[in-house]
Amino acid sequence: MAMGTPPLVDVLSPLDPEEFAVESRAAVDFIAGYYRDIEKYPVRSEAEPGSLRRLLSDEPPENGEPIDGILADVQQYIVPGLTHFQSPNFFAYYPFNASTAGFVGEILCAGLNVAPFTWVASPLATELEGVMMDWIGKLMGLPDCFLFSGGGGGVLHGSTCEAVICTLVAARDRALNRLTHEGILKMVVYASDQSHSTFQKGAKLVGIPPSNFRVIQTSAAFSYGLTVDSVRNAVEADIARGLVPLYLCATVGTTGVGAVDPVGELGELAQHYGMWLHVDAAYAGSALICPEFQDCIQGVGLADSVSMNPHKWFLTNMDCCCLWVTSPAVLTSALSITPEYLNDISHGSAAKTGMIDYKDWQIALTRRFRAIKLWVVLRRYGAVGLRANIRRHVEMAKWFELALKADDRFEVIVPRRFSLVCFRFRPRYEGDHTVDALNRKLLNVVNASGKAFMIHTIVDNKFVIRLAIGATMTEMRHIRDTFELVQEKATEIGQDRD
């Protein structure tokens, strides 16, 4: 052996079918055991900063190890320190759904491991995505203008942030066609004080000056939704200053309180001023498959784009975000760049053949085969099963809201929206200046118990506790137990003050 030549080792077979079956089965059994035992763990992680680094070696492994040993270490080192998003007692943020069908779809996505960035790269994966976008759009009650069958179209992203950035880029470039090169410094983006922060981040990333982002105040009088008058006043003030209204966000189910903006009225306003209207239905969009909720997007045909996240409340494992647009050409012209190696010499360009190249609908080039997850979920549960899942969570939220109202120590801050309940602990003898402190303490002791996990929001300068129901394994008994936990901890806090 020549000096300096490394010793020969056995050739790896990382995709040996027999080994693949054995090790994958071990992983599936591990996850099944995790779900079986998930209620044994505190819902919110109790890990201290740096705790894992102290347990693991500073050096990467030189030699491979059996999968059983790796899974044993996952159980010992990783699982106990997780915040368990799939716990039936997880009520924080908004739900991050999982299901058996979603997991199977994820296995197929990862196992097939294709990259449908152009039609020719993965023809049927590309076409399945188009079909899925039309299927879900129809279930949600979106008008034909958002469907491929009606001249629009849709794409699967990983997150709302990606979808928002793409629509902001499209809106920006559409506006620049009629403005000077300095026009971007005059463009203004509008959202409410309840809109997700991703819109501010997206505007910043596409070059909109932070000073040109308008946060429009909402109020209890309009259930914390935007009003046409408030938006019009902000737009008129900007026009008077020589600025250009570019983009307006309307939300169906805001993160803080689940507010619903008047989509149709805002659509008329946006068209009048030449703004792009995006409808963010990341959470509540899943509920639109139930006919009783579809009035929330009345007039959505006046919008330019709509997004929703199946990984929130549609029994689809992370990550998966649907984005629909009424004018695919506007989106793709802003995002399309085609190097020579991606030119399809066998079929001609996508534009000429009507084929879809999804690389032109997103930021990145490569992409996952997310459509197969949606296909498996929709095939496995059907619209009937998906609606039943939404409705049972809504019924649980209704029960929790009524239980709070029956205890005069609590107040429901805004009427329940979908499966979100926002409330405060407010003993009658407490002054306003101490109520926030009491609620902070209540939230902390509930979460510290390990029996439930919720977060807070600020509404009209009030500290408010949010209970967002949507975990796949949550049953009515978990809701009752959580309410009793809240009552118990509230009683303890009250006694401490006596």
UniProtKB/TrEMBL annotation:
Pfam families found in the cross-reference section: Pyridoxal_deC (PF00282)
Keyword Lyase: yes
InterPro entries, sorted: Aromatic_deC, PyrdxlP-dep_de-COase, PyrdxlP-dep_Trfase, PyrdxlP-dep_Trfase_major, PyrdxlP-dep_Trfase_small
GO molecular function terms noted in the UniProt entry: carboxy-lyase activity; pyridoxal phosphate binding
Keywords carried by this UniProt record: Decarboxylase, Lyase, Pyridoxal phosphate
A GO-annotated cellular component: cytoplasm
Residue(s) carrying N6-(pyridoxal phosphate)lysine: K312
Cofactor(s), names only, from the UniProt record: pyridoxal 5'-phosphate
GO annotation, biological process: amino acid metabolic process; carboxylic acid metabolic process
Source taxon at top rank: Eukaryota
Protein name: Tyrosine/DOPA decarboxylase 2
Family of the protein in this entry: Belongs to the group II decarboxylase family.
